[in-house]
Design a protein that fits this description.
141 residues; 21% helix; Thiol Ester Dehydrase, Chain A; alpha+beta; 2 helices
Length: 141
């Protein structure tokens, strides 16, 4: 059984990543660009699992990413990425993220993302689905 690091206990969803050799920079720790990729995997998996949808029906665009680096991550580290929905607007919503290392439970990074609901067939933004709102509310009870 996986022990969720304490900083992630308040998150309804945790996605796991491992730091691979390809993720490292010359200093031997995870390069800054890899964090955005980990966050992308976590938020996409969260949304697809929450909504029980295939990737082709996701309908989201990343509008903003704010990332704060706290501690370095190293080869072989197992990282939990906590995901939760913050505020939901009419056509967009914010997500909060924390990346924490399994073991010593160090917070590696924190992030906020803003996602926009988008209809790729219409080529325009759309309202955040009511079903998404319901499922998020149910999850956060």
């Amino acid at each position: 059984m996986v022990k969720v690091p304490a900083p992630l206990a308040v998150f309804p969803y945790v996605h796991w990543e491992e730091v691979h050799f390809r993720d490292l920079d010359l200093l031997g720790h995870a390069n800054n660009v890899v964090y955005a990729s980990w966050l992308e995997s976590a938020r996409i998996r969260y949304y697809l699992d929450l909504m029980d949808l295939p990737l082709e029906e996701m309908g989201l665009i990343l509008a903003e990413l704010t990332l704060t680096y706290k501690s370095p991550a190293y080869f072989g580290d197992r990282l939990g990425i906590g995901v939760r929905v913050g505020t939901i607007g009419s056509k967009s919503f914010m997500m909060d993220h924390v990346i924490a290392r399994e073991g010593d439970e160090a917070v590696i990074a924190t992030a906020k993302t803003v996602l926009v609901s988008y209809d790729y067939k219409l080529g325009s933004t759309v309202s955040v689905p009511e079903e998404f709102r319901r499922r998020v509310a149910r999850q956060q009870e």
